Amino acid sequence: MQEIGQIAVTVSDVAYVLPFYRDVLGLKFLFSPTPNLAFLAAGSVRIMLSTPQGAGCVGANSILYFRVDDIAAKYGAMVAMGAHSDREPQLAAKMPDHELWIGFLRDPDGNLVGLMEEKR
After folding, report:
1. Model confidence over 93-118: pLDDT tens digits?
2. Which has the closest alpha carbon to 63: 31, 79, 81, 86?
3. How far is the C-alpha of 63 from the C-alpha of 61, rounded, in Å?
4. Phi, psi of 98 (to 5 degrees)
5. Higher local confidence (pLDDT), 53 or 31
6. Strand runs (DSSP E) across the chain, as ranges?
7. CATH class of the region 6-119
């Protein structure tokens, strides 16, 4: 096994949800070969937005956690851009060398998206 290459997120309508992932989360848009597929980059991991194709349910995907700096500011900016607030950032765990902070947003289909910051 190597690193994760791609993660699929099942959505109701790619054109409807794409602006959230591209504009609000700031992922790099790569390409859209059909109206039911769009690919974005989250660092070295590709995110595939797809309508249900035999697997996955809209709004019931696994949770994607994105690393951010200054989680409070980033969370506030994303909510101001239209992201649905689920849980404001809060301390999740104190580690020996850092604090783990987590906050949650929802995309337009209700999929949970996590933001995380390791504060040193």
Report:
1. 999 999 999 999 999 999 999 999 99
2. 86
3. 6
4. -165, 170
5. 31
6. 6-10, 28-34, 37-42, 45-50, 64-67, 84-94, 99-106, 112-119
7. alpha beta
**Torsion sign over Cα 65, 70, 71, 74:** negative
Amino acid at site 17: V
Q: Which of 21-25, 51-55, 84-88 has the lowest mean pLDDT?
A: 51-55
Structure tokens, 87: 């849980």
> Structure pTM?
0.90
Q: What does the alpha-carbon distance between residue 88 and residue 99 come to, in Å, rounded to a whole number?
A: 16
* Helix residue ranges per DSSP H, 2-119: 14-19, 71-80
DSSP 64: E
Here the tokens at position 53 are 């194709």
How far apart are the C-alpha atoms of 116 and 7, rounded to whole Å?
A: 18
Smallest CA-to-CA distance from 45 within 16, 7, 90, 84 is with 7
pLDDT at position 61 is 87
Question: 57 is written with which tokens?
Answer: 């349910």
Q: Are strands 45-50 and 37-42 parallel, antiparallel or unpaired?
A: antiparallel
